[in-house]
Amino acid sequence: MASSSDSDDNSVSTFSSSLVFNIVVAAVIFVGFCILRPRFKRVYAPRTYAVGKEKRSPAIGSWPLAWIPAVLKVSDDKIIERVGLDTYMFLRYMRSMFVIFVVLSFLSLVTILPVNITGGGGATELNRLTIANVPSESTKLWVHIVFFMVFVAWVLRNIFVELQVYTRLRIWWLTNPSHTGKVGASTIMVTTLPPALVDSDDRLRATFDLFPGGVRQVIVNRNCSELEEAVEERDALAASLEKQLTSYAAKCEKLYKKATKKGGEYKAPKRPTMRESKIPLRGPKLDAFEFLSTKIGELNRRIA
Asked: pLDDT by residue (tens digit) across 112-134?
């Protein structure tokens, strides 16, 4: 039966192995990025040449670590100008998460970790780093409570600040001439409209003209599946009619030449027939030209 010391040794060795492995993987990824970045500009720096001059980013030097000071020096306004507000907000979210967890990690290392190590609960190895090493009657547990309060206050403070920034940026962006001049800035999508309103463009315009300034254009996004089916059916019938006419014309020409050569009377061949039903041998035979022409006319009126 394994002893508790053997179990502790295994946990320490497992933690150490995982830590070393992750450090090595992170180092390989970091070094690989630094080496590959200046060599593959199409992947890592397409905005230095593949966009308009007004939105191009300045090229970063070929030194492997040249990207670090460039990232630290770029201003928020430049990021918004070059990549747009959506990308900037995502980057700002990542930065705020980084700041939150770096500060909390530092505070936990200088407060919680020493308290746990010196807790005197008799825990060994990695358990000494946890709250399990602090006895339930120890006053040191107040440190964890206070730290939890600081944790919550710090997170809420950052969320509040970021919401204020988001509100200001949203107002600025919605009133920015570079945004207001775009079609998307003055376009809204309204869903679940009643059929009586959707079927009449005049009613739609009269309804939305109630907004200040009225509306410039009303476009209804309709379900065109039935129209597509009708167009496909019409095109298939037209192709069939064209084939039948071509074949009939060739047969007429052949018979006419034959009759002329023999000096006999030309007799037009029998017109092709077809059945309306798609099931073989079902329904009366109809004149193919008249049936296809009538069907195509009906579909044209339906499409129009």
From this structure: 888 888 877 777 777 778 888 88
Label residue 222 left, alpha or beta by phi (over 0 means left) and psi (-120 to 50 means alpha): beta
**184-188 — which CB contacts under 8 Å span 24+ positions?**
186/216
Contact present, 271 and 264 (Cβ < 8 Å): no
What single-letter amino acid sits at 22? N
Residue 288: both structure tokens together: 């193919």
Which token pair is 302?
Answer: 């339906």
- Cross-strand bridge partners of residue 273: 287
3-state secondary structure of 247: helix
- Given a contact cutoff of 8 angstroms between Cβ atoms, the answer to whether 303 and 234 are in contact is yes
Q: Do residues 292 and 240 touch, judged by C-beta distance below 8 A?
A: yes
Question: Of all helices (H) and strands (E), which one includes residue 42?
Answer: helix 41-44
Does 50 or 145 have the greater pLDDT score? Answer: 145
| DSSP track, 9-20 | HHHHHHHHHHHH
What residues contact 43, with CB distance under 8 A and at least 6 apart? 36
For residue 145, the Cα-to-chain-centroid distance in whole angstroms is 42
The per-residue pLDDT for range 160-208, each reduced to its tens digit, is 999 999 999 888 888 888 777 777 777 878 878 787 777 777 787 777 7
Long-range contacts for 87-92 (Cβ within 8 Å, ≥24 apart)? 89/166, 89/169, 92/162, 92/165
The mean predicted confidence, pLDDT, of the chain is 84
pLDDT computed for residue 1 by the predictor: 42
Please tell me the predicted confidence (pLDDT) of residue 9.
53
Return the residue matching tokens 């007004």: 54
291 token code pair: 């049936």
In degrees, rounded to 5, the angle at the alpha carbon of residue 30 between the alpha carbons of residues 27 and 35 is 120
